[in-house]
Design goal:
The complex is a heterodimer of chains A (405) and B (235).
Chain A (H helix, E strand, L loop, with lengths): L1 H20 L1 H36 L6 E6 L13 H10 L3 E6 L2 E8 L2 E10 L9 E4 L4 H5 L4 E4 L1 H7 L10 E4 L2 E9 L15 E4 H8 L8 E5 L5 H15 L6 E5 H44 L1 H10 L3 H43 L7 H29 L2 H6 L2
Parallel strand pairs in A: 4-9, 6-8
Antiparallel strand pairs in A: 1-10, 1-11, 2-10, 3-4, 3-7, 5-8, 6-9, 7-8
Helix pairs in contact in A: 1-10, 2-8, 2-10, 2-11, 8-10, 8-11, 10-11
Chain B lengths: L1 H4 E14 L2 E14 L3 E5 L6 H8 L7 E6 L2 E2 L5 H11 E4 L11 H11 L4 H14 L15 H13 L5 E5 L7 H16 L4 E5 L2 H4 L4 E6 L2 E7 L6
Parallel strand pairs in B: 3-8, 3-9, 6-7, 7-8
Antiparallel strand pairs in B: 1-2, 1-4, 4-5, 9-10
The chains are: A alpha+beta (405), B alpha/beta (235).
């Protein structure tokens, strides 16, 4: 056993010498493996990066909120309108609910000095669903909600239209339809993720103000709930849906939307993507493996005489097997190693220059998974496609082999 | 004990090859003994069975019947791994075509059997260098086979055959690929090796080469037709 272990090092050195001696052949043989491994690893990194970018965008959504709205499949959508009083009752009925916010919007002509345009006015709370950073002023406060203040936070697009000269608009009074609202803050440019996520209208006002001013003219279909304990959000969603249905004597259907359910459906898409990539990887693995097996068989045939000499000198079949097995192992290890490096490089570069530029989210490179893929490829190719040629070499009859020209 | 003192004892050995329905008897009952320190040539025309006998003596093949005792060990019924071990420890091969590994230098070629014996690298190289000096190539250790002449390559092959200190040196047409001057040099090397006690068995079809040995066994049609001690040539 000690003798065998002692032989491993020299066997590797010798196999390396053989591969180096046949440089062109070696490179051509492992090209398939390099491309296969590089493709799978880079696509895998990209997948992680894209999924990270999407969840990164979703990260601006509060996990304390969920939205309830009528299920689109029901026959008469309008029967499912939600009453504000029912919303308020949920606060009493379900202890996990901190706030129930009517999420409605109306369109109004908004004027600031000489500039005017039609904008969407939407109700919001001090805890926002999509928490974009502000470039001017502040967000809605608890006090704004409590006092039904006539204040608004502008989306960046609306700010550009109303204040094309730029500058800090905080404190400016806007004419919104019949009313006047004071600008208290301006949101920054939204992160343009792979999926554009845009919540709320152009002007956000306290929902209490919205209820006073606009609820009477439009039925309410959307409501946003704030919960105390985000881990129980799923239960609370079911409770609210059941309550709203019971109010309508089960003649309306509702569904909910929250950050977790959204990101898990996105994760599902990426899982499917990963599966397809894995399948492609498996195909390239087989193709590359057959290439390696082919060249190993050629190598065994070419070196038939050498094998005969080694056996005549006293090499056992196991020692000959080890020699060719190690050659196959080295071949596939080098291929997978180079493939790993190229895959990491390509995946990392695309992450760096495309994904970060698009989404602003820095994706985490899955080092462990990438290395595991490369090692797995090398192991499988060696075991499946390196064993047979090595076995052929080991089985050669020394007399026949010595006679081989 | 008498069997143990002989290098080789072959008793009523036959070898029959089956070629489909046809059975070809390459050896039809051969018996002889070779003592330690002998220098024997095995001769015969092609088809006489000398290659078959060579393969049997070299433990590359097993006899169909009969017994073969090599250096005290009966090898007729050993399995492949045991035969490999016997070849490793008790036999040294010299081939007509040298059969050196082209990519490796002389020292590593000579050290190859020691590698399979599991000897450490330092010890392998020490012994290989000493063996190369013994065959007169002490200064060529780092040369690859294609940087050596035919005679030098055969010397490397002889060093490789002897590096494990085998009981028998088995040479198959060792001068077949060499010109007459180089052949004479190799034969002189064999004579010197035999003079210090090496047992040498040489298979050849060339009477000139065979005259270097001290004893000649002639085969024809799978049988020994003569076995005589000769007066070897003096170089």
């Amino acid at each position: 056993m000690i003798a065998t272990l002692r032989q491993i090092g020299p066997l590797f050195a010798e196999a390396f010498g053989v591969l180096l001696g046949n440089r062109t052949r070696t490179i051509l043989t492992i090209t398939g493996l390099i491309i296969g491994v590089a493709a799978v690893i880079s696509i895998q990194i990209l997948g992680k990066g894209m999924s990270g970018a999407v969840t990164g965008v979703l990260g601006t959504l509060s996990d304390q909120s969920f939205i309830v709205f009528p299920n689109a499949r029901q026959a008469d959508f309008t029967k499912a309108s939600i009453k504000y009083s029912d919303l308020q009752k949920t606060l009493v009925l379900f202890p996990n609910i901190v706030d129930a916010i009517p999420a409605g919007s109306v369109d109004r002509l908004v004027t600031s000095g000489h500039h005017h345009a039609r904008f969407t006015i939407s109700s919001d709370s001090d805890i926002r669903f999509a928490a974009l950073p502000l470039i001017y002023g502040r967000a809605l406060s608890r006090a704004d909600v409590a006092t039904s203040a006539h204040v608004c936070v502008l989306k960046n697009d609306a700010y550009q239209r109303l204040f094309p000269e730029g500058g800090d608009p905080v404190g400016t009074s806007l004419r919104v339809g019949e009313r006047r609202y004071v600008v208290i803050g301006v949101e920054g440019r939204p992160v343009q993720g792979l999926i554009p996520v845009n919540f709320g209208g152009d002007l956000s006002i306290p929902y209490t103000t919205y209820v006073h001013e606009y609820l009477r003219e439009r039925p309410l279909f959307f409501a946003r709930f704030l919960v105390r304990d985000p881990s129980k959000i799923a239960e609370t969603e079911v409770q609210v849906i059941n309550y709203l249905k019971s109010v309508k004597q089960d003649r309306a259907e509702y569904q909910t939307f929250d950050r977790k359910s959204f990101s898990s459906s996105i994760d599902g898409i990426f899982a499917a993507l990963t599966f397809v990539v894995t399948l492609i990887g498996a195909v390239s693995l087989v193709v590359a493996g057959i290439g390696i097996m082919n060249i190993m068989l050629v190598s065994v045939t070419e070196r038939t005489r050498e094998i005969g000499v080694r056996k005549a000198i006293g090499a056992t079949s196991a020692q000959v097997l080890a020699q060719f097995f190690i050659e196959a192992l080295l071949l596939s290890s080098i291929g997978c190693g180079i493939g790993l490096l190229i895959g990491l490089l390509v995946g990392g570069l695309v992450d760096r220059f495309a994904l970060i530029a698009i989404s602003g989210v820095v994706p985490v490179i899955p080092w462990f998974q990438s290395v595991a893929i490369a090692v797995g490829f090398a192991t499988i190719v060696t075991l499946v496609f390196g064993t047979y040629p090595a076995y052929r070499a080991a089985r050669l009859d020394p007399i026949e082999a010595l006679r081989y020209e | 004990m008498s069997a143990n003192s002989s290098a080789i004892v072959i008793t009523k050995v036959t070898k029959i090859y089956k070629m489909g329905a046809l059975e070809v008897a390459a050896l039809r009952g051969v018996s002889f003994a070779i003592e330690r320190g002998e220098y024997v040539a095995i001769m015969g025309p092609s088809g006489s069975g000398k290659s078959t006998l060579m393969n049997l003596i070299g433990c590359l093949d097993r006899p169909t019947s009969g017994e073969y005792v090599l250096d005290g060990t009966s090898v007729g019924s050993l399995d492949d791994n045991a035969l490999a071990a016997i070849r490793l420890r008790k036999l040294g091969f010299v081939f007509q075509g040298f059969n050196l590994l082209a990519r490796t230098n002389a020292i590593k070629n000579v050290a190859l059997p020691l590698f399979y014996a599991g000897i450490s690298q330092r010890e392998r190289e020490r012994r290989a260098e000493r063996m190369l000096s013994e065959v007169g190539l002490g200064d060529r250790g780092n040369h690859k086979p294609n940087e050596l002449s035919g005679g030098q390559q055969q010397r490397v092959a002889i060093a490789r055959a002897l590096v494990n200190d085998p009981a028998v040196l088995l040479a198959d047409e060792p001068t077949g690929n060499l010109d007459s001057t180089t052949s004479a040099e190799i034969m002189e090397l064999f004579r010197q090796l035999n003079a210090v006690g090496r047992t040498i068995i040489m298979v050849t079809h060339d009477p000139e080469t065979a005259r270097n040995a001290k004893r000649v066994i002639r085969l024809r049609d799978g049988l020994i037709v003569s076995d005589e001690v000769t007066e070897p040539l003096r170089a």
